[in-house]
């Protein structure tokens, strides 16, 4: 696990961003506290990350200093992941792609392994192939560090789609999602983090889902102890297809699909995994 106990003395870093800093990116992450893993509201979660000398500095609302950590604790170097050299290094950000930045915790007691998260995302997007999952196009690099991955961009999360009350074919949507998951299983992987924020659509076709966020995916049969990005706890588990199948049950309920609808009630997908999934 990365050691986040070595937080940089805040007196040694600027109190606000400067033009000399390189913007790493922005993200929304759940905070982690000692009182049972309480989460904070989304508005309070928004941070921006900057590089400054050998540190990553986080700012809330662009100007309020949150903290800083040593780069080598949270960012992968290009030479640590030979696989990344198969992809293009972009010096100019492409407009038609999304930059996925490293998952950097806000609290030093959290001990989430950012580097392993990025390493898994690179491996998984290289090995798992499907038209409805992001394609890895390249990466952003500075001073030998991987600052983010350029992947396919989508428009709307399932959560936002449902909140908008826009009509779409929910049965067709769910059937396609099941097909995507089944394909991932046949390739020997489990997504393991399927929810309404990790399922997206494009504006031109709301009936077709795209499954994103592959930093949690693992090979079927892997047994590991990994801390959740969102809770102060370690989860020791064996990665099986049933993890995704449980998520599918939840998504089906979220979509409000009739349980008696035989079109989407596919035993080889929403029930415990078939043996062929390991093929």
Automatic annotation (TrEMBL):
UniProt GO MF annotations: ATP binding; protein serine/threonine kinase activity
Recorded GO CC terms = nucleus
Q: A GO biological process this protein is involved in?
A: mitotic DNA damage checkpoint signaling
Q: Which Pfam families match?
A: Pkinase
- InterPro entries reported in the protein's UniProt record: Kinase-like_dom_sf, Prot_kinase_dom
Q: Which residues form the Protein kinase domain?
A: 60-279
Q: Which SUPFAM superfamilies did the record assign?
A: Protein kinase-like (PK-like) (SSF56112)
The protein here is known as Protein kinase domain-containing protein
Q: What is the lineage of its organism?
A: Eukaryota, Fungi, Fungi incertae sedis, Zoopagomycota, Kickxellomycotina
């Amino acid at each position: 696990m990365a050691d986040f106990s070595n937080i940089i003395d805040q007196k040694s870093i600027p109190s606000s961003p400067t033009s000399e800093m390189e913007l790493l990116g922005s993200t929304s992450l759940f905070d982690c506290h000692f009182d049972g893993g309480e989460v904070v509201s989304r508005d309070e979660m928004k941070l921006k990350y900057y590089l400054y000398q050998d540190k990553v500095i986080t700012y809330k609302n662009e100007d309020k200093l949150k903290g800083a950590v040593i780069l080598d604790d949270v960012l992968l170097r290009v030479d640590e992941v030979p696989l990344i050299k198969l992809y293009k290094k972009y010096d100019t950000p492409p407009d038609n792609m999304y930059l996925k930045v490293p998952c950097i915790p806000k609290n030093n007691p959290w001990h989430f392994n950012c580097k392993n998260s990025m390493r898994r995302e690179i491996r998984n997007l290289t090995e798992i192939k499907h038209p409805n999952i992001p394609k890895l196009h390249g990466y952003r690099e500075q001073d030998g560090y991987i600052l983010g991955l350029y992947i396919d961009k989508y428009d709307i999360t399932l959560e936002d789609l449902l909140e908008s009350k826009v009509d779409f074919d929910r049965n067709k949507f769910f059937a396609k999602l099941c097909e995507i998951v089944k394909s991932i299983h046949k390739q020997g992987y489990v997504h393991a983090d399927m929810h309404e924020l990790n399922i997206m659509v494009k504006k031109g076709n709301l009936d077709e889902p795209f499954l994103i966020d592959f930093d949690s995916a693992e090979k079927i049969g892997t047994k590991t102890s990994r801390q959740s990005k969102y809770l102060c706890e370690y989860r020791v588990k064996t990665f099986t297809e049933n993890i995704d199948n449980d998520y599918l049950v939840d998504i089906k309920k979220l979509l409000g699909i009739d349980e008696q609808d035989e079109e989407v009630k596919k035993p080889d997908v929403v029930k415990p995994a078939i043996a062929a999934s390991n093929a």
